[in-house]
Amino acid sequence: MSRTVTKQRKMITTAAAWTIGLIIFFPIYWTILTSFKTEAQAINDPPLFFAFDWTLENYALVQERSDYMKFLWNSVIIAGGSTILGILVAIPAAWSMAFVPSKRTKDVLLWMLSTKMLPAVGVLYPISLIFVQFDLLDTRGGLVVVLMLINLPIIVWMLYTYFKEIPGEILEAARMDGATLKEEILYVLTPMAIPGIASTILLNFILAWNEAFWTLNLTAANAAPLTAFIASYSSPEGLFFAKLSAASTMAITPILILGWFSQKQLVRGLTFGAVK
Amino acid sequence: MGQIQLKQVTKSFGDVQVIPPLDLIIQDGEFTVFVGPSGCGKSTLLRLIAGLEDITTGHIEIDGQDATDVVPAKRGLAMVFQSYALYPHMSVRKNIAFPLRMAKLNQVEITKRVERAASVLNLTDYLDRRPGQLSGGQRQRVAIGRAIVRDPAAFLFDEPLSNLDAALRVGMRLEISELHKRLETTMVYVTHDQVEAMTMADKIVVLQAGVIEQVGTPLELYHTPRNTFVAGFIGSPKMNLMTGGEAAKHNAHTIGVRPEHIDVVESGGQWQGTVGVAEHLGSDTFFHIHNTGLAETLTVRAIGDVNLKHGDTIHLAPRVDEIHRFDADGLRIA
Amino acid sequence: MATKASRSAARFMMAPAVVLLLGWMLVPLIMTLWFSFTKYLPLRGDSIDRGLDWVGFANYSRFLSSSSFWPSVQTTLVMVGGVLLITLVLGILLAILLDQPMWGQGVVRILVIAPFFVMPTVSALVWKNMLMDPVNGIFAHLWRFFGAEPVAWLQDASLSSIIMIVSWQWLPFATLILLTAIQSLDSEQLEAAEMDGAPVLKRFWFIVLPHLARAITIVVLIQTIFLLSIFAEIFVTTGGAFGTRTLTYLIFQRVIDSQNIGLGSAGGVYAIILANIVAIFLMRIVGKNLDA
């Protein structure tokens, strides 16, 4: 039973929520706006909100400095590859935990999560040595594997929570209907868990896309994704706000668009399947 | 064919033995109902037969073949679950076809069999709907359809009607009974509702704490319950059980009289008491009677509408030849 | 639903994930442990092929006695704690606000989530330059507009500034989880409390907050995991200067900048120990709350 809300109260909450929302969004808005200004306008005091000459020259300059498409493609391959690979490894594991739980299931799950707490920096050098040994330094394949391993615990955990919502009786029915384990997972479990799997894929794609420790430390020219593309602007260089904004906009736009298109799954994914 | 035999079957979860050694034969074509209060092990027993749980010791034979270590998919049994367990992402047609697809039948044969099953169950108009768009009764029929398409050796039903409302339950009860008459396939049916057991079964297996209390036809159980547990469990309203002086009069530790075997009389009568609650159903009247000196409450069924109210004195005449006698261990005295 | 067959299938299907993670954990860990007991300076010609000199616990005592060790632990804890506190408090308030009926809820939600999509390098650079630059940043403009002296954020309030940036990134996450949890609260419970005469604040304290316990646990767990290894935000803003050197960053400097692998590895082991202390502490709470 919802009570009638006075119009006045609704107006106040609307105003408050929009104000806070816009404040939170402001840095992104400001970045996108600045990317269309000239360098001089970018640092104008007072700041220019509307009255300026829109220009695309910053984008041209950024592109000239480093080939955007190459970085973008690396990001797509690395984030996409690690996510898909992770899902393939995680689905069977999550099936086991959700439908054949044992006394140790919870311990295994928590152990997996705890591997995420191992400080990456503590093992950076050994990993780079292994990478050198296997010729993986600055390759997309190497990063796909590392990012898959990093996100695997989260993927397993999310899938586990989604699978647990599926009644075990349905899988038993499939077994009674003569399905083998593979058929049970392929034809019954996976299609039923599609929303959860989609959320998992989306969230981990974003996490992998934004990952900035291994991607910065294990790549150079060849396999560098967008995190490296933007990192080249980290040292100040005279007037560069507009160029920085353009580069930033280019780096975050693909994910922002993806996020807006799949808002519903994402919100679900963002809660890691753990809160209903 | 579909004879199922359990030989010295036990089941333990960890250190807890939920089913002590148990022997049972379910004959081919028989409608067998496992009935008992919740937690009596009846569902576990069904799942052992299905192969969804391992038995701890003993053997299960299906049609004379040892099936103890056979996986569920290979036992040739079909199961209807309490929650129906329909595949929500598949249409009714695909749901019913699923076992056939798993058996790698060709498409023509699958279509033929699905349509036959659908027409038997009045589902033809719903074949392209998803389970979510169906009513409870229709879902139930889809679950049955999924079970019958593959001509199983036996059907296993795990409390299939408990999610339906009362009116629908009566209808589905009849449909399942009719289906059994038509298919003449072995059916094993689990329920906690003794009315379902009485109305549907050829053979009832009454279970308590994993132990079989009695096996027999519905009327055998009604007329000659082997012990006080079966006496109290079968029949509605429950049999009145009394101990003490009145039982001693009949040379028994406990005696039992069913509510329908006690007549309400104008005066005299062997027993009397005060009416507590009178439930007027029109066709019958149930009286819950206090202050009889026999038991805390006595339940009596009178035919038709008998005009007695709360607080009235009521005179009762039990039918002496319908009194069941039990000894100190609760076992029937012949 | 557990037969011998399904249990063995389960073990088989768990194997790839478990083996991969075990390898991922153990192999580098053992190498780090080994290096931490050796003198390993690649720039001075040390290499595994030529054999490393065993130095016992020298690296450990040197790392521990270094003047930057304890400050870095402190910085780490302040940063993680600060971000957790800010995101939880603001997250709860924001979640309650967003739960109210309003116009354009969907759009507001998009606005609030957006920072989560921004990669850490970008958000750090944008905040550092566009917002916090003491001359040309928006904050500087704002301060001057009100007649105040602009603040050199990343020098004079460096740690708080980084906490602010990171909180901005993680606030959406906390808000969303808490919002989802609030929405799942049975309104009859609140109505019952209202009938019992509990005023708004008491209803929040005795009904809403306990209901959020699980969500708060999840926020703390996930955020701690990510915050302990914060790197990019420091890398591109202060480079570890002005009291923003976390343990992670200190080790990074030892390994990469000074190429002292032995010393850095000893630091790595300390970081692992610290992470484990936090992990055990967290897992205790989470393990309890996860089933509830």
UniProtKB/TrEMBL annotation, chain A:
Superkingdom of the source?
A: Bacteria
- Give TM regions: 12-32, 71-96, 108-131, 143-163, 184-207, 240-261
- Look up keyword Hydrolase and say if it applies: no
GO annotations under biological process? transmembrane transport
A single Gene Ontology CC annotation of this entry is:
plasma membrane
Q: What is its main location?
A: membrane
Domain named ABC transmembrane type-1 is located at: 72-262
| InterPro entries per UniProt | BP-dep_ABC_trans_perm (IPR050901), MetI-like (IPR000515), MetI-like_sf (IPR035906)
User: PROSITE patterns annotated for this entry?
Assistant: ABC_TM1
- One Pfam family from the UniProt entry? BPD_transp_1
User: What is the protein's membrane topology class?
Assistant: Multi-pass membrane protein
Question: Keywords on this record?
Answer: Cell membrane, Membrane, Transmembrane, Transmembrane helix, Transport
The record, for CDD domains, names: TM_PBP2
Q: Where in the cell is it found?
A: Cell membrane
Matching entries from PANTHER family are given as: INNER MEMBRANE ABC TRANSPORTER PERMEASE PROTEIN YCJP, MALTOSE TRANSPORT SYSTEM PERMEASE-RELATED
Q: Which family does it belong to?
A: Belongs to the binding-protein-dependent transport system permease family.
Specify the protein name. Answer: Sorbitol ABC transporter membrane protein /mannitol ABC transporter membrane protein
What is the organism field in this record?
Ruegeria halocynthiae
UniProtKB/TrEMBL annotation, chain B:
Please provide, in alphabetical order, the Gene Ontology terms of the cellular component aspect for this entry. ATP-binding cassette (ABC) transporter complex, substrate-binding subunit-containing; maltose transport complex
Residues forming the ABC transporter domain are 4-234
Q: Please indicate if the UniProt record lists Signal as a keyword.
A: no
Record CDD domains: ABC_MalK_N (cd03301)
User: Is Transport found in the keyword set?
Assistant: yes
Alphabetically ordered keywords of this record = ATP-binding, Nucleotide-binding, Transport
Q: Which InterPro entries does this UniProt record tie to the protein?
A: AAA+_ATPase, ABC_transporter-like_ATP-bd, ABC_transporter-like_CS, ABC_transpr_MalK-like, ABC_transpr_MalK/UgpC-like, Mo/tungstate-bd_C_term_dom, NA-bd_OB-fold, P-loop_NTPase
One Pfam match, given by its short name, reads TOBE_2
MF terms per GO, please?
Answer: ABC-type maltose transporter activity; ATP binding; ATP hydrolysis activity
Q: Which family does it belong to?
A: Belongs to the ABC transporter superfamily.
Protein name per its UniProtKB record: Sorbitol ABC transporter ATP-binding protein /mannitol ABC transporter ATP-binding protein
TrEMBL record, chain C:
Q: Which residues form the ABC transmembrane type-1 domain?
A: 73-282
Q: Which GO terms describe its biological process?
A: transmembrane transport
For this protein, the record's Gene3D superfamilies field holds:
MetI-like
Subcellular location(s) per record: Cell membrane
> Cross-referenced SUPFAM superfamilies, in alphabetical order?
MalF N-terminal region-like (SSF160964), MetI-like (SSF161098)
User: Pfam families of this UniProt entry?
Assistant: BPD_transp_1
Instruction: Please give the start and end residues of each transmembrane region.
Output: 12-37, 77-98, 110-127, 159-182, 203-228, 234-252, 264-286
Q: How does it sit in the membrane?
A: Multi-pass membrane protein
Q: Principal place where this protein is found?
A: membrane
Q: Which PANTHER family match?
A: ABC TRANSPORTER PERMEASE PROTEIN
Protein name, please? Sorbitol ABC transporter membrane protein /mannitol ABC transporter membrane protein
